[in-house]
Specification:
Chain B: Keywords: Cell membrane, Electron transport, Membrane, Oxidoreductase, Transmembrane, Transmembrane helix, Transport. Chain B: This is Cytochrome bo(3) ubiquinol oxidase subunit 3. Chain B: Pfam families: COX3. Chain B: Heterooctamer of two A chains, two B chains, two C chains and two D chains. The complex is a heterodimer of chains A (126) and B (209). With 126 residues, chain A is mainly α. Chain A folds into 2 domains: 78 residues, no CATH class; 43 residues. Helices cover 74% and strands 0% of the residues of chain A. Chain B has a single domain, classed as Four Helix Bundle (Hemerythrin (Met), subunit A), CATH 1.20.120.80. Helices cover 74% and strands 2% of the residues of chain B. A two-stranded antiparallel sheet of chain B has the order 1-2. In chain B, α1 runs antiparallel to α5, α3 packs antiparallel against α6 and α5 runs antiparallel to α6. Chain B is flat, with a radius of gyration of 22 Å. The chains are: A mainly alpha (126), B mainly alpha (209). Chains A and B meet through α1, α2, α3 and α4 of A and α1, α3 and α6 of B.
Chain lengths: 126, 209
């Protein structure tokens, strides 16, 4: 794999215009990591290896987060330096928005669910 | 990039570029496209939130356990992942100015994308045949909206891919086509990132529930 890095790397140096240039080894590393990070959660759920569902859920969510980061770095070529840092800025802003929207919706709606009047009481009110 | 506040002679602040210099064509395309992807990300975030809220409301209908075939989802996931890496190869051959090879990798990417859409539509058709339509329960409405929106994005990506293959065939790997392929690359990998969320939160956690 390292020979490929040099072959692709030597080609890249001439037209370096500030964009992150992709290399064969970078894509392959990202791909192998993604396959592993996809296969393990599927295996965990399909085989039911872990003792409790809560632990399995937490583990596969952790795998998803790691895989998203892997994709960002190796496939989308994110780095703090790309576009003078503006893409990272947009990304961080989006992550903040997504976290607020997701956690806020789930939290509020969950409370709303538990504060709802149970159905059997509602039928008694008629 | 930063718009500085230029003090004029009179000392008043100026909130625009006083000497606007021309930029080369496509100078800000990749940043602009990235910002579009981020706004698309917000659409998916809202759909994920909706699914998170409604995902357990089965209305006495079928639950994820009865509907989802994880083997099929695993195959589907690998299709999308393979299409990501083949698009990567298309970008690498594009950097080396190899038109024919770029076209071949783009075609292979398209076939994997087509396989993904085909499997997804088969799954949808199977579910609807069993009575698990979007109207059946809040869970199914949220499911079809979220997964369907992702599938629609992939379909649009496929149309875009074919368009660019025609463009590259006609005009070669000119600067504009490189820029367009770069944008589609970001779009395609972004859809794979969204799919990580879909298979984890919808399929795996759904079956686990």
């Amino acid at each position: 794999m390292s020979t490929n890095t040099h072959a692709a790397g030597a080609h890249d140096h001439h037209h370096d215009d500030g964009h992150a240039h992709s290399t064969f080894s970078g894509y392959m590393l990202g791909f192998v990591l993604s396959v592993v990070l996809t296969a393990i959660p599927f295996w965990l759920v399909m085989s039911g290896t872990l003792p409790s569902k809560q632990i399995t859920a937490l583990v596969i969510m952790a795998f998803a987060v790691v895989q998203i980061v892997v994709h960002m770095i190796y496939f989308l070529h994110m780095s703090p330096k790309s576009e003078n840092g503006w893409s990272m800025m947009a990304l961080i802003f989006t992550i903040v928005m997504v976290v607020i929207a997701l956690s806020g919706s789930l939290w509020v709606m969950n409370h709303l669910n538990s504060n709802m009047m149970p159905i059997h009481q509602m039928s008694g009110m008629k | 990039m930063t718009v500085a506040v230029n003090p004029t002679q009179t000392g008043e602040p100026l909130f625009y570029l006083a000497d606007e210099h021309p930029h080369p064509e496509g100078y800000s395309t990749s940043l602009g496209f990235w910002i579009y992807l981020m706004s698309d990300c917000l659409i998916f975030a809202i759909l994920f939130a909706t699914f998170g809220v409604l995902g357990a409301n089965y209305a006495a209908g079928p639950a994820p356990k009865d509907l989802f075939d994880l083997n099929l989802v695993a195959v589907n996931t690998s299709m999308l992942l393979l299409s990501s890496i083949t698009y990567g190869f298309a970008m690498l051959t594009m950097q080396q100015n190899k038109v024919a090879q770029t076209q071949i990798w783009l075609a292979i990417t398209g076939l994997f994308g087509l396989a993904f859409i085909g499997i997804e539509l088969t799954e949808f058709a199977h579910m609807i045949h069993e009575g698990a339509t979007p109207q059946r329960s809040a869970f199914l409405s949220a499911f079809f909206t979220l997964v369907g929106t992702h599938g629609l994005h992939v379909s649009c990506g496929l149309i875009w891919l074919v368009t660019l293959m025609v463009q590259v065939g006609k005009f070669g790997l000119i600067e504009a086509n490189r820029r367009r392929l770069m944008c589609l690359s970001m779009f395609w990998h972004f859809l794979d990132v969204v799919w990580i969320g879909v298979f984890t939160f919808v399929y795996l956690l759904g079956v686990l529930r």
